[in-house]
Amino acid sequence: MPAYGVIGGQWGDEGKGKIIDVLASRADMVVRFSGGNNAGHTVMNQQGEFKLHLVPAGIFWPNSWCAIGNGVVVDPGALLDELGALEERGLDISRLSISDRAHVVMPYHVLLDQLEENARGDNAIGTTGKGIGPAYVDKTARAGIRVGDLLDETYLAERLEAVLGHKNAMLTKVYGVEPLDMDTLYRQSLEFGARLRHYVAPVEKLVANALADGKKVLLEGAQGALLDVDHGGYPYVTSSSSTIGGASTGVGVPPRHIKGVTGVFKAYSTRVGAGPMVSELFDEVADRIREKAWEYGTTTGRPRRCGWFDAVAARYSSNINGFTSAALTRLDVLDGFDSVKVCVGYEVDGKTIDYFPGSTAVVQRCKPVWEEFPGWTTPTEGATKLEALPPEAMKYVKRLEKAIGCPIDLISTGPHRDETIEVRPIMA
Ligand code: GDP
Ligand code: IMO
Ligand code: MG
After folding, report:
1. Residue with CA at minimum distance from ligand 2 atom 26
2. What separation in Å is there between the alpha carbon of 166 and the centre of ligand 3?
3. Which residue from 8, 159, 217, 427 could staple onto 224, CB 3.0 to 4.6 Å apart?
4. What is d(CA 75, CA 110) in angstroms, rounded to the nearest whole number?
5. CA 428 to CA 122: how far, in whole Å?
6. Could you tell me the CATH superfamily of domain 103-196?
């Protein structure tokens, strides 16, 4: 019966892809529930290195059926390219379903994302430019096209006629660019529909059946809790619900079925895009982390902003997700530092606080309060047993465990599937 969530605990890119690839060995289904191809999930295993954007990271395991839930926004061209590339590399992509209720990222969404970002000037969010925000705007405004609509010639024409006039008015009158041609868009959408048809399914029903049969369903998060449209540092967020609540609505899985929620945390902090990050570093430590860990975006290639672990943000993230366990990734990146720090409080307006403020204006004024720990020289890189970790690294892990407020059940010591310490079984 149980479903399990895997959620980014920070600002995305925590290593969810790696962790889901590990956990999918014991899942019957892996279902993505939010975001779109703004996500970039890296997996390294016996089959090679892969960058997934829409396809769930369970695709490498023959035991797990993969699905894209209704909460995801799907760019059909991007998905077909991704599927084609996976197939070329010998993967079985037939074990995939796409919810007929998922919304489609249309070409005008991609255009509008880029035009809106330019128009924001200094206030740009630093979006991935994949059309994600505009697609979710249309979903909420009831002006979206859904995957199921692509399969119905008559209904698709009706829907496009209902929305394209307004989109073209935006493109031409607000942004002064060329309008999109109805006929071209219609034909292209129908072609995408024809190519995706055999994947389209009522995903919520597949999940309900799997749960009723006692199967294990892994709910795959994208982005991170601090990018959640409600709980993140608004407006520097993505446009979907990347916390565990989004898993329930984004798949149609009742909350009572969710038995465990694993938060994935990096052993330090990174962020790509704009918005405050209290523990950000601007010195050689940030450069050292960035270069050593190759902290450049999986989707856009942009350099990631780097800083020490933010315990205030981590506890907040844990509270809003109810993490039952955590997976700590990239511990090996900190090998060889003389000392490592954790941001344990924020100093703002003459006070020290230990709660993540709702107001972004306040977060912008916060300064980090550090706790410093001795570093370690014995490498953790590639370790597969807890006993292999040097005592200083263990002490650091224990401090992070206290900060997050739940057991760290899995420690990742390298990008490869096998470079993993499973302290206690997750999804057992
Ligand atoms: P995701 O979006 O959360 O799936 O994370 P990304 O794939 O965007 O970024 C995480 C990066 O860290 C990828 O390059 C992974 O290969 C890498 N990675 C994951 N876990 C580890 C780890 O424990 N150690 C190291 N060195 N790299 C890791
Ligand atoms: P994964 O799943 C890191 C960030 C963007 C930008 C903000 C809004 O790989 O962890 P959007 O294109 O969503 O409108 O951009 O959100 N962002 C991510 N940052 N990892 C991601 O996904 C992200 N998806 C979006 O950089 O700051
Ligand atoms: Mg990523």
Report:
1. 273
2. 33
3. 8
4. 9
5. 48
6. Adenylosuccinate Synthetase, subunit A, domain 2 (1.10.300.10)
